[in-house]
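User: For my dataset I need records formatted as: sequence, then structure tokens, nothing else. Please produce one.
Assistant:
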Amino acid sequence: MKKIVVFLFALCGLCTSLFSQTSRDTVYTHEFLELYHADDLKWMTRDQVAIDRYIDENRKLTDKSCDVLFLGSSSINMWDGIEQDFAPLKIIRRSYGGSAVRDMLYHYNVIARGYRPHAIVLYVENDLSGDVRHDLTVGETFDYLRVFVNRLKRDYKGVPVYMLSYKPSPSRAKMIPKQKLINALLEEYASVTPNVYFVDVASSMYDAEGNLRQDIYKPDKLHLNREGYNLWTSILKPLLMRYKQ
């Protein structure tokens, strides 16, 4: 059992709404909260090859300014043509396949610190992947995501953070109820948190009858194909174009 120390908000007491805090709410901010999880170091560092590549790229990157910094897992990493899709925006992408938000926190200094973005996009879904060995609960995942976003807000004061909704996919159909729950939590969190925005890409992935579209995925029925990314681009790009410098 490994101990992972992270920054968190400890919410003490029940509120009528998840985030409707008033002067009467008993809310304390603790500098550290120790979270225990069964992830060992080998699992946390399983993508070290990708991290080493980013370390090397960062050394060679003379200009770390960008219009948008994209962070996340394989849905960002496998976005072929992302530079063309978001042109004329200048983007920097720091994503790697299989990433979970807790190992993104572990690698935070490499993937998320030291850049100069005008906006940040975050997408990661692998903390709720259906893997009984490593999955977190919805509540734990929500906590880790808030920790990650709070670090971004600390390091990039005034820079907007766009959190994409968890996407439904046929190969993870059993996870959709949990995805809907965390999407609701993230949407409300964004609604009361300055410079944090929730972007619903999930709704566009259903047809008019409410069925999950089958034509927007690669053969693995998990990752998006070009049609799927066209959907995401049509939703996200208009929101980001305002940050073109």
